Amino acid sequence: MPVITCIDDLKRLHKARTPRMFYDYAESGSYSEQTFRDNSTDFARIRLRQKVAVDMSGRSTASDMVGLPVAMPVGLAPVGLTGMQHADGEILAARAAEKFGVPFCLSTMSICSIEDVAQHTTKPFMFQLYVMKDQDFLAAIIERAKRANCNALVLTLDLQILGQRHKDLKNGLSAPPKFTLPTMLDLATRWRWGMGMLQTKRRFFGNIVGHAKGVGDASSLGSWTAEQFDEKLDWDKIARIRDMWGGKLILKGILDPEDARIAADFGADAIVVSNHGGRQLDGALSSIRMLPHIVEAVGDQVEIHMDSGIRSGQDVLKALALGAHGTWIGRAFVHGLGAMGEAGVTRALEVIRAELDTTMALCGEKRVQALGRQNVMLPQGFL
Ligand code: FNR
Fold first, then answer.
1. Protein residue whose Cα sits closest to atom 9 of ligand 1
2. Which tens digit of pLDDT belongs to each residue from 341-375?
3. Residue 120 in domain
């Protein structure tokens, strides 16, 4: 068992153990990847304020997200094709999250279906929805999420059209993937992954294949999804989905203070300040830079979460200090999954919690709720 001390260790193992096509799918941003890079580098520009001679005993990272108790305010964000990084990936990640006491959110574009994950876990999880044009599919998937006892619906608003990721096109990553000779050779040499996929009994895109009209098998999936993202999405449609769902609603992909105001007036239970991990609007500012503006606009009206760029407990602390009530990680847990399956996701969470705990102590804070602007120094021009 390799010694894993940070998320970067898991990333290196993920790269070594997973076929290139799937690693690249996770570790890329859209177009020039400017926003993808900024998400990380802007975290690094924020500095922490060290405090000494403060009683740091009895600390706790415990908090809540949309009213649910959490061991630390860090959830596993919805990630499409998680089951490609490791056989049964969504189930393994959901299990790691429930044992750790943090939220897991299943993507619409997952390999394991809502029912698969519900059957193999014991606690409720969240479900992420992309708004599709097919109204029957939309109504049915919301019903399936209710039947599976999902405890919140995360509605993603920043992907009604796909930002191009160059590597995916070059690697032939599509739904289903196109296998060329080089990719076949790559798959064959990553025997560990290959064995895992052979063992899996899950269907490809379990939430969609067999559940949408005209999608009987994976071969018809690509064209269906390409034309199903609803480019006409507007607040009336979001209101209809809220009514159909009836439970807790989190709006994900808000990056603009004006949109945040509309979302807060709309009555969302939480919003996620996010640029989709730099995978959509290339050239947008990083989430961590937009966070303070959104907190200033609606911080007293709605619970604010953020994601995009978090790779450590220090990053989590910085987001909380700038006003986020909760955070989400995407690639940080996917690296763990691709590296070591469920144990890798658990390790990613352990690493982040230990970093958060130590950093809180050195900043002189005992509770995550007490973190604030007093703990950070922002570089000139950051705001
Ligand atoms: C995503 N993300 C995403 N979001 C969503 O709402 N539905 C989805 O299906 C996906 N799929 C997806 C795939 C991959 C490979 C990645 C990396 C991300 C975005 C995700 O929920 C989250 O916003 C980002 O991952 C956060 O950025 P970091 O933590 O990866 O930097």
1. 80
2. 999 999 999 999 999 999 999 999 999 999 999 99
3. yes
Q: Is 156 known to sit in a ligand binding site?
A: yes
Q: Which CATH number goes with the domain that contains 182?
A: 3.20.20.70
Tell me the per-residue pLDDT of 267-308, one tens digit each, with 9 for 90 and over.
999 999 999 999 999 999 999 999 999 999 999 999 999 999
CA of 80 to the centre of ligand 1 (A): 7
ipTM of the shown complex: 1.00
Number of domains the chain is built from: 1
Tell me which residue range forms the domain holding 332: 7-375
Closest-lying ligand 1 atom to the alpha carbon of residue 308: 27
The answer to whether 31 is a known ligand-binding residue is no
Amino acid in the structure at residue 381: G
State pTM to two decimals. 0.97
276 assigned to active site: yes
Q: Bridge partners of 332?
A: none
Bridge partners (DSSP) of residue 376 are: 48
79 is in an annotated binding site: yes
Query: Is 26 part of a structural domain of the chain?
Result: yes
Assigned domain for 381 exists? no
Q: How far is CA 204 from CA 90, 177, 273, in A?
A: 12, 11, 30
Rounded Cα distance, 300 and 23, in Å:
39
Residue 380 lies in a domain: no
- Residue whose pair of structure tokens reads 């599709």 in the numeric block: 132
CA of 329 to the centre of ligand 1 (A): 8
Catalytic residue among 14, 86, 276, 325: 276
